[in-house]
Amino acid sequence: MNLTARRGAGELIRDVRLPSEYDEAAFVAGEAQRLAQGGTPLNEMAVLFRANRQSALLEYAFMRQRVPYVLPGRQRLYHRREVREVLAYLALATTGDEAALDQVINIPPRGLGPVAVRLLCGEQGRITWTQLVKAMSEPDALGLRLSAVQAIEQFWDMAQALRKAAGGQPPAELIDRVLEDTGYRAWLAAELDGPLRLNSILELRREAEGYPDTARFLAAIQAQIEADLERADDEGVTFLTIHAAKGLQFKVVFVVGLEEGLLPAAKAVDGAGETGERRLAHVAFSRARDLLYLVSARSRELGGRRVYPRPRRYLGAVPKSAVIRYPPNGSSTKGDFIT
Q1: Which residues contact 166 (CB under 8 A, 6 or more apart)?
Q2: Degrees (nearest 5) of the Cα angle 67, 327, 274?
Q3: Fold of 79-229
Q4: DSSP-assigned letter for residue 144
Q5: What is the pLDDT along the chain (339 residues), one digit of tens a residue?
Q6: Which of 103, 229, 280, 330 has the most CB atoms within 10 Å of its CB?
């Protein structure tokens, strides 16, 4: 029996080169929205990336443009522990919210173990400002050790300083102050997954730059969280690492970060590791049934510094006749081929 392909040549692969990772994220969100408006179901689209740290900026862009997305097996940006904790500190600084107080009293760890926290909670079952005052003025009544009392006093002073600062600082600057004054940034620096978690917080900070005051920023975040909870888990563009995409296919695929240092990863460029990276690129490219976008940035922040990656090696393996620079001359008209 002879098998014959009947679908025809199909769409050309779209080579998209953008100034920075911010332009990359905005382009992918905007293009996904355009395709959805043209009739392509959101759940038939996927964004593939080499490293999990790339997803935070993409999430932010999708949220700004109100394009639904899903993260199979992972928490969305605003639901991640580190982001919730920084948001709790912002609420603590602006309103003195006691639910936030209960959440961050020992974050980062400051010597208030489970026993001290239980004593602080008392019969109310949660920590209050009144209990903190009592702990500092009558420590023996609560049965607290001296080290716990000292930790509470340090937390109190830090929290009061944040509350004073909150009135005159925009939310982005207040996040900076929270990271430094609480020791949160230093704590993450000592954690194995610290860089990834800090990256999520920095995306939160970038969004905060668009708001003049913290109260308005927190209200907008809460609205987004509530919208996330109401949305079906499978409704939206799928975000996946290339490894997680093996065996799957989508109508439209955006492969982002197709640059030296990301794909292929910098540590794999020399030696046998490059062969594995080439296989990964093949996996990524072959996830698309109908339309494939190969997206890269001319500059990107990697390892805390801005780099200017060399051209992608894997695009050269694709026949030039199958690829188009997109959008050519600022439009979506075909015809501007790579030379």
Answers
A1: 90, 93, 94, 174, 214
A2: 85
A3: PCRA; domain 4 (1.10.486)
A4: -
A5: 666 656 666 789 999 999 999 999 999 999 999 999 999 999 999 999 988 888 888 998 998 888 999 988 777 888 889 999 999 999 999 988 888 988 899 999 988 888 888 888 877 778 889 889 988 988 888 888 888 999 999 999 999 999 988 877 899 999 999 999 999 999 999 988 888 899 889 989 988 988 988 999 999 888 888 877 666 566 899 999 999 998 899 999 999 998 888 887 777 666 566 778 888 888 999 999 999 999 999 998 876 678 888 766 777 778 888 889 888 655 443 333 232
A6: 280
Domain boundaries, the chain: 13-68+236-330, 79-229
The DSSP result for 249-295, as a single string, is -EEEEEE---STBBTTBGGGSSTTHHHHHHHHHHHHHTTEEEEEEEE
Is the distance from CB of 26 to CB of 60 less than 8 angstroms? no
How far apart are the C-alpha atoms of 179 and 167, rounded to whole Å?
A: 17
Query: pTM of the full predicted structure?
Result: 0.73
Residue among 95, 43, 131 at smallest CA distance from 215 = 95
Is CATH 3.40.50.300 what the domain over 13-68+236-330 is classified as, yes or no? yes
Which one-letter DSSP state was computed for residue 79?
A: G
Instruction: Specify the DSSP element, H or E, that contains 95.
Output: helix 81-95
